[in-house]
Amino acid sequence: MIPVSTATELALRAAMSRLLDGKSERTDGGLTVVNLATEAGVSRATANRATGVLKTFREAVAEISRRRGVERTAQQADSEETSRYVKDLLAQHLQVRALLRASEQRRITRQGVRLRIID
Fold first, then answer.
1. Is 29 helix (H, G, I), strand (E, B) or coil?
2. Rounded CA gap, 113 and 118, in Å?
3. pTM for the complete prediction?
4. Would you give the end-to-end CA distance of the chain in angstroms?
């Protein structure tokens, strides 16, 4: 395989930097080899010949994916904890309302008994 020129490697590394920083100029910013090649202004075949750059790019993408997975897991845990808290709070409110309703019903019943005695 014919190695890429120094200029091509520099263009790919600059493109990789832009993509990883989220500052793409020519693509949608997706972390793909196709976008890397497009950002660098080279063909996919040329990008695929730059094995060192591709290895670095794929490692960086894997690290970003891993971090996002950890963040997502933490967010899910927070979300689940919040959901449990809200469910518990709603259950407590329902219990209080049921107790208040029962208390009110007892009060009404007592008042009814008093009214009957007066009649």
1. coil
2. 9
3. 0.60
4. 108
Say yes or no to pLDDT of 20 above 90.
yes
**75's tokens:** 């967010």
Q: Where are the beta strands (DSSP E) in 1-119?
A: none
**pLDDT, mean over the chain:** 89
Measure the CA–CA gap between 16 and 22, rounded to whole angstroms: 10
Rg (CA), the chain: 33
- Which phi-psi region, left, alpha or beta, contains residue 68 (left: φ > 0; alpha: ψ -120 to 50)? alpha
Q: Are 16 and 27 in contact (CB under 8 A)?
A: no
Q: What is the phi/psi pair of residue 47, to 5°?
A: -60, -40
